[in-house]
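Design request, tokens follow.
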């Protein structure tokens, strides 16, 4: 069982990142990285993985409501496979249906001012990671 886990809400323009601990089963939003057609600056991810001493990664899979895959699902899987290849870490995939909506709802109910309107990607990554932690 890994100790520290990094969660990713994959997107073609932005990738939300959260950090979690398996012992406490808690997760927190960390940052949002820009991506170009789904490709991030891998050096930024490498720095975060090293800085936080990450043992494993969790990538959200964007599925249709009926559970079927869509084009972005394949991009998210490719991203996860590249994480494994580049950084030699185990990668787990989690169904992320409705996490962006839930993340925006969480942000509007808990944050004040302009923060309520910030992109929800890192909060979505937190929710993806929390889902995986609960399933362990």
């Amino acid at each position: 069982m890994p100790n520290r886990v990094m969660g990713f809400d994959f997107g073609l323009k932005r990738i939300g990142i959260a950090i979690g601990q398996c012992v406490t089963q808690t997760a927190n939003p960390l940052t949002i990285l820009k991506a170009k057609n789904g490709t991030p600056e891998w050096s930024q991810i490498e720095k975060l993985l090293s800085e936080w001493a990450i043992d494993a990664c969790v990538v959200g899979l964007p599925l249709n409501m009926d559970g079927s895959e869509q084009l972005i699902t394949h991009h998210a899987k490719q991203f996860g496979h590249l994480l494994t290849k580049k950084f030699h870490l185990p990668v787990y995939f989690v169904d992320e249906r409705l996490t962006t909506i839930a993340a925006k709802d969480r942000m509007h109910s808990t944050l004040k001012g302009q923060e309520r309107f910030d992109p929800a990607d890192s909060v979505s990554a937190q929710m993806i990671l929390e889902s995986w932690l609960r399933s362990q």
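Comment from the thread starter after seeing the answer: thanks! The chain has four helices and six strands.
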